[in-house]
Amino acid sequence: MNDDVRNIVLGVVATAVSGGFGWFTRTYLWRRALRRKQAFFGLPTGSDCLFVVNRQMGGTESSLHRNDAFALLEISSLIKDCGATVRIVTHEARQGFGERAEFCVGGPASNSRTVAHLHSMLPGVRVDVSTEAGPDRGSIAVGGETYRWEPGLVEYVLLARLTSGQGSRPVFLLSGQTANSNQAAARYLARHHEKLARAHRGASFCLLLKVVNSDAYGPDVTELVADVTAAARTPAAAAASPR
What is the pTM of this model? Predict the structure, then answer.
């Protein structure tokens, strides 16, 4: 074997080894990222989860706002990536939580299951569900602050990951002042789940998000206002009492 042939053979072998190592590395990193995503969402391969739909405010019990339907699509892609399946149920479903992952969409005015989750796991949150026109209609109060809805300009939404104990599957709560803000929370979750997983490491959290100028930008421009986990999980009466 002359030098030219040997150099060609060595080059082919080096290319094959390099390509195989690159493929192995990419596969390892992809599988690690998938395992982290599955752990964060509580969606191991082959599992199923619940998507709890609300009713359109002012509509019939079976009506669903198109932005809430878009929120379902945003979340469905995450569920599919994890190799899980989704079962859609109405907000009147009567069942516990923790056995399977759950995505609950809609504020307490349109979703009775949201009411239960706020009462049980986020007792420090108060949402004005009055139907009378006024500045506090739909407002979210938490941590001594009140966040008011300004139609077309400012909308707020709570995005929470809640667990009832070690080993339980999480509930993701997307409780917005409007259907548009519900979709914004779903989009924020889809875009930032890796960052949220690193920041909270499997623990419960509750974030307050602000949707800016929704008349012009829809659900696309969303800002993180604050992490209100501690205040939201502290009963309002206890938070207000003197220390």
Answer: 0.83
